[in-house]
Design goal:
This protein has seven helices and seven strands, in the order βαβαββαβαβαααβ. It is globular and about 50 Å long. Strand 2, helix 2 and strand 3 form a beta-alpha-beta unit. The longest helix has 26 residues. It has a seven-stranded parallel beta sheet with strand order 3-2-1-4-5-6-7, sandwiched between helices. The chain is of the alpha/beta class and about 260 residues long.
């Protein structure tokens, strides 16, 4: 039985739109799927975590959400598309010395984090070009803009996401298709906490630039709702940082350091 309640019709920003969200079974993707549904969108969750994905769809309701088992690194797994959210990603243990990094591990991260965005964008464009409209949202990271925050593979993969976003925006503008990137700061999702072996507040304690607030999954979902709606009709090719100012400051520079 569906447990998600629609917003009042006048408040729905995605009414009647169809959205595909990769990696939508958990974390940022799940929060985005839930918020999209509240705003009136029909949501297709594409993920390899079948049980989690199907559970989210049950919560959202069969009429508004469906699940597709999809390995985003395999092109043949892709089948009215208004919004594409390329969110699926993995991390890898950071190895500070590049000499200790393995080619196979590097390629695995690039395959999921970068190649999947290329494939998702490619096939979203195929569906959107005939209607000459659509919004593609690629999920990057603060590692899309700065170095020294994550592993070599992860940082490279997220820089690639921004580069692809800008390049495809230059191409698809002629069809009225917008494509943008969302780059959040670290969020302690269940997956990231388990992977990095950290607690709930670890991300907040590291170089937080905003007092009294911490980044939550729904904050990124709200930014995705904005980019997926018709409101930013003239915004394309941009990298929207959802990071509390993290990428605008150098934590090692003491001019604005707090006592």
């Amino acid at each position: 039985m569906a447990t998600t309640t629609l917003l009042p019709r006048e408040a729905r920003r995605l009414e009647g739109k169809v959205a595909v969200i990769t990696g939508g079974a958990g974390g940022i993707g799940e929060s985005t799927a839930r918020l999209f549904s509240k705003h009136g969108a029909k949501v297709i969750i594409a993920d390899i975590r079948d049980d989690l994905g199907k559970s989210v769809c049950v919560d959202l309701g069969a009429e508004t959400a469906s699940f597709v088992h999809c390995d985003v690194s395999i092109e043949s797994d892709f089948g009215k598309l208004d919004i594409m959210v390329n969110n699926a990603a993995i991390g890898d243990p950071p190895k500070a010395n590049i000499l200790d990094n393995d080619k196979a591990d590097f390629e695995r991260v690039i395959g999921v984090n970068s190649t999947s965005v290329f494939l998702g964008t490619k096939h979203a464009a195929r569906a959107m070009i005939p209607s000459r409209s659509g919004s593609i949202i690629n999920v990057g990271s603060v590692s899309s803009s700065v170095g020294g925050v994550a592993s070599h593979a992860y940082t490279s993969s997220k820089h690639a996401v921004v580069g692809l976003t800008r390049n495809v925006a230059a191409e698809l503008g002629r069809y009225g298709i917008r494509i943008n990137c969302l780059s959040p700061y670290f969020i302690p999702t269940p997956l990231s906490k388990e992977f990095f072996k950290i607690d709930e507040n670890a991300g907040v304690r590291v170089y937080s630039n905003l007092d009294g607030v911490s980044l939550q999954e729904e904050d990124v979902a709200k930014a995705a709702v904005y980019l997926g709606s018709d409101e930013p009709k003239y915004i394309s090719g941009q990298n929207l940082a959802v990071d509390g100012g993290f990428t605008t400051i150098n934590p090692a520079f003491g001019l604005f350091a707090r006592a």
